[in-house]
Known about the structure:
There is one protein chain. The chain is mostly beta strands. It has a single domain (3-188), classed as Acetoacetate decarboxylase-like (Beta Barrel), CATH 2.40.400. The chain has three helices and 14 strands. The protein has helices at residues 58-64, 106-117, 120-123; strands spanning 3-15, 19-28, 36-43, 48-53, 69-72, 74-79, 83-90, 93-103, 125-128, 134-152, 155-156, 168-169, 172-173, 179-188. The strands form two sheets. Strands 1, 2, 3, 4, 5, 6, 7, 8, 9, 10, 11 and 14 form a twelve-stranded mixed β-sheet that branches. The protein has a two-stranded antiparallel sheet with strand order 12-13. A hairpin with a 3-residue loop joins strand 1 and strand 2.
Amino acid sequence: MNLLPFEGFIIPGLHFSNCSIWVLNWETNPTPIDRMVEVWILWHDGKKTCYIDPPNADNILKKYHNFDEIIPADINVSETDSNISIGVVVNGVLILSVELLRKKTLKYKLLNVILKYGNKDKMAEQGKTETGMNYKSIPRRIDSISIVKVQFNNKELTLITNSPIKYSLGDGKSSKKPIISYCTHMLED
């Protein structure tokens, strides 16, 4: 089985009172599309929406995931040493803004030392997407993050600590606490 490397980061689940938001930012990948960003909104009513940039990346997305809606968007991701900002614009209108802060914790400092010098393969998560395609996510660095502010359609979302439903996309699971995982996400060809 041939697995293709998608390099970048995943934020696997920021939980709010009405939804969970995932962000996948692939800065490099083995497709004709150089950079690809996906923002997934998993609504508590079961509906799954994906905002995607660029729009022609939808065929790649559909190979691995099933969404009720796939919406073309301009997605801006900006990172500094301490902050991460994400903006999703559809038809010229900012519909989602996410402001995150990196947290420096001993737990993640130690984990990242293990990732740097240890066997990353043993730390990998693997399974199948909801379309039955194999994946293996190999972390390079994981940071704890906190949510400064998230607005959807100009309304601030209410953060919750325990999600009322289990979010899953195939075998992939959301994180219990907000994190950003810089990784190589290997996807079946």
